[in-house]
Amino acid sequence: MGDDVRELRPKAPDTEKITINLGFVDLGHVDLMVQEGFYSNRSDFIRTAIRNQLERHADVVRQSTARKSLDLGLRNYTREDLEATRRAGQMLQINVLGLATIAQDVTPDLARATIASVSVLGALHATPAVKAALADRTR
Fold first, then answer.
1. Half-sphere exposure (CA, 13 Å, Cβ side) for 106?
2. Is residue 10 part of a domain?
3. Which Pfam families match (predicted)?
4. Which residues touch 86 (CB under 8 Å, ≥6 apart)?
5. Domain range enclosing 72
């Protein structure tokens, strides 16, 4: 299996990197919790804190998700999906809480012809050209 193994399609990342600013005392508390073995590292502490807050407010999140008609989780839009939408004479309203992906082979023209609006709470993965083509339709 050595050097002749090639990745056919790059795997999409499972996570999105964010940056936060913490005061020195808060950061020291996090480092102390890590040092004492409660968490494996700073990221583990932060992920746990975020999950705890999301669980604490789960009812509100659930109600808001339903009220805003958000697709929850991972949503992938392929070139074939968008071509079928164009053939049907329709336009998509993309509303996702999680990760929305527009396939790499979707052209900016096809995206503009088939996507009326984009609202993503989380991350939108698309080519820079498609993101630019949809910039005026993205909230």
1. 31
2. no
3. RHH_8
4. 110, 113, 114
5. 68-137
